Amino acid sequence: MSYRWVDHTAELELEIEASDEREVLEEAVRAxxxxxxxxxxxxxxxxxxxxxADRPALLAAWIEELAFLAESEGFxxxxxxxxxxxxxxxHAAVAGMLDAPPPLVKAxxxxxxxxxxxxxxxxxxxxxxx
Length: 130
Hints:
Elements: E1 2-8, E2 11-18, H1 21-35, E3 44-51, H2 55-73, E4 75-85, E5 89-98, E6 107-118, E7 121-129
Antiparallel strand pairs: 1-2, 2-7, 3-5, 4-5, 6-7
């Protein structure tokens, strides 16, 4: 599993490769925490629940909710403790920490949005307006 950031003008594209869908979501958590300047395990837990029409939209909603928690509460998720993943929803408990992250993420866009099976794993892509 891995992720990488690709720079765009006023945007960042996150590309994720993982062995399963849970790892895609875990890598998204790690990548966002890194973007917000937070490293290490978190000891606080927060519930997160999102719904969407399909997997790509679910990934976008997931990142939007994590970015919202960071900006509104100063809670930066650093890992997934529990995850229930349905066709159009996910319920999770995320671990994280309170910090004062910069308000970097303006929006999660649907431009080039993807979350799909590929070979022996999954690939995902999401573009953030920063």
